[in-house]
UniProtKB/TrEMBL annotation:
Ranges annotated as spanning the membrane: 96-124, 130-151, 172-190
Family (UniProt): Belongs to the cation diffusion facilitator (CDF) transporter (TC 2.A.4) family. FieF subfamily.
Species per Swiss-Prot/TrEMBL record: Spectribacter acetivorans
Keywords: Ion transport, Iron, Iron transport, Membrane, Transmembrane, Transmembrane helix, Transport, Zinc, Zinc transport
Name listed for the protein in its UniProt record: Cation diffusion facilitator family transporter
Taxonomy, superkingdom: Bacteria
Amino acid sequence: MSESLAEGERRPARGGLRLEVRRKQRATLVGAAVNLPLGLLKLVAGYFGRSEALIADGVHSLSDLVSDAVVLAAIRVGAKSADHDHPYGHARIETVATAFVGMLLIVTAGFIAWNAGVVLLGGATPVVPGWPALAAAIASLILKEALFWYTRHQARRTRSLLLEANAWHHRSDAASSVVAVVAVAGSMAGMPLLDAVGAVLIATMLAAFGWRYGWQSLRELVDTGLAPDRLSVVRDHIGDVPGVRRMRRLRTRTMGGHAAYADVGVMVDPYISLSEAHRISEEISDRLVSHVDEIADICIHIEPDGHEDAPAAFDLPLRTELMTGLRAAWADLPIAGHIERVTLHYLNDAVDVEVLLPFEQVELVGSVAMVRSRFAAVAREVPGVRAIRPLFR
């Protein structure tokens, strides 16, 4: 038996989802509103101020603008509910977009490093930047640092890895602006190669951030599970539920950076009712979703303790075939015609059978002891059956 959370249980209320989406969109739009004029300002100031580092910084800001557009689209699509083609929702759209932003950072870094390398290797004559370049670099530093703190705050509120990656994209731009300020100032002070050195440092920072978020997203896309310490927390909560004897095959996979989907096999007393087993699975679901932040959905496979995946277990006949053999074996037993219910308990390599009988019919056989004896004899005649236990009402 498997148990999966209902849609309303695994996700925040619809109003809460809409609020999270609005926060993500607002943070991204604010970033785009800053990046477009700032990137153009740095490109113009770098060109007329003759600063390779500031031009590189301007390209960085415009790459932020591209990533803002990607993030905005991913947020819009990723917020869609699950549908027939996407039963787990669209959260991995954010993951793909995060990987794209990471690759964009790395490509941008390569472009900047190439241009700066030409200067450093003697392929071009270094020039001394002017005051417009320095002023633009300082303005960029202030604006991008403020944008980083704002975007990261929204990322923490919405638990969005994609938004956090974009925040660090802003921070890398602020860091590159620091390098640009130092590089421009140093060049103006009589060290013209410092501007190209600064551009290389900016490229290195970009590549590092790109690798960090790109690699993390790629790991998620190949169904990397929760970290061992978080898996231990999940196991503890499952093991604490009354009725759970053992568990096996606990598997998880992350989705959208912060959510995780899990499935597990849970062993229970093989003689409890189906409804009690279902109640145990509900309790496991409730506890995990309430106490483990990452768990968005859990599929629980309830198994009778002692029923393993041994070849003999798979060879046992299903109810239809088994009942044919049982009815044939007890056909001559007078009380068998009064059986009200037959319950089968599959226990590894054999089946225990329970039959419910009205007590007043015991006289057809003689006594309760004789009824039990006759059914024990029947059990020996049916392949796969270990015992038949008569129950009386």
